[in-house]
Amino acid sequence: MNIQKIKEKAQQVLNMNKPQYMRILLMIALLELIPNLLNIGEDILSNLLYIIISIAFMAVSHGYIVSSLKMVRNQSMMLANDDAFVGFKRFKELFSTYLLKNIFTVVPSMIMVLISSIFLGLFIAGASSGLSSQAVLSNDYTQIISSVANLPASVLGAFMLVYLIIVILIVVISSYLFAVSYLLERYHMTNMNAIKESFRLMKGHIWDVIKLELSFLGWMVLVILVQSVIGELLAFLPILGSLIASIIASVVGVYTYLPRYHLSKAIFFEELAYYRYEQTN
Q: Is 198 contained in some domain?
């Protein structure tokens, strides 16, 4: 696929109803911040509340799918502010598919992280004579970090490789699951049907979707830097400062790259779907 042409088309589509589309994206981006606002405690009740809120907001990103597909399918005049809340309005319909998608994305990576962390702990304990079990149990991070720094380069290199593999695994799995949300919206495929079909649809196009994501990497890094700088400047306001930084980063994202980013992904899917479903009919 020609990623540059997809992005150029996205820019053209954006002009159809840009103000309304950007308004919807901003609303969704701000909604996505709400679960993190409640992640402020370490007690069981706070963690339980955070989990419940995160589950309730699991499908909120579907608003991006609905509004973007309207734009690329020449239905931009049908855009409405309610599109930002479709993840709540259609929660019962969307939840199980989004839950499965998240499980398929996160669980393999968590397993690899757990395994590598266990082996890292064993390597540290065996290779670092200065590290006592008391330091580990008491979370003496200064001694732990110092011990890790003194590990042989080959050991550190091996674990850097493991974590690189984990990152690659996450990227590849996410790429295979790229079409799930679009299939759910466009063809009403749900649960395992959507996941299996996404794997089939994306076969041979994994590198294409990775290239599309990488083409926006510079903007993503810029937004992260903006959020980090503002967060540091407002460090004297622990919770409020973090909230302000996140809101500003969301606004910057919407007014720089996010509209073209979501439209490009919708166009990417539409082209794949056309050759698989439409052209054969």
A: yes
Q: Which amino acid is at 136?
A: V
Give CA–CA dist 14/72, Å, rounded.
9
**pTM reported for the whole predicted model:** 0.84
Average pLDDT, the chain: 85
Domain that holds residue 7: 3-216+257-278
**What was the pLDDT predicted at 136?**
43
CA distance 66 to 54: 21
Minimal CA–CA distance to 233: which of 241, 224, 225, 221?
A: 241
Of 173, 175, 181, 164, the C-alpha closest to 208 is 175
Q: Tell me if 245 is assigned to some domain.
A: no
Q: Which amino acid is at 78?
A: M
Task: For residue 77, tell me if it sits in a domain.
Answer: yes
pLDDT category at 151 given cuts 50, 70, 90 is low
Q: Is residue 42 part of a domain?
A: yes
Q: In whole angstroms, how far apart are CA 190 and each of 41, 95, 109, 193?
A: 35, 10, 23, 6
Residues in Cβ contact with 15 at an 8 Å cutoff, skipping those fewer than 6 apart: none
DSSP 220-254: HHHHHHHHHHHHHHTTTSHHHHHHHHHHHHHHHHH
The per-residue pLDDT for range 188-246, each reduced to its tens digit, is: 999 999 999 999 999 999 999 999 999 999 999 999 999 999 989 988 887 788 889 99
Eight-state DSSP code of residue 33: T
- Which residues have a Cβ under 8 Å from the Cβ of 253 and sit 6 or more positions away? 29, 219, 223
Domain count along the chain: 1
Contacts for 154 with CB less than 8 Å, ≥ 6 apart: none
The stretch 173-200 carries a mean pLDDT of 95
CA distance 49 to 30: 19
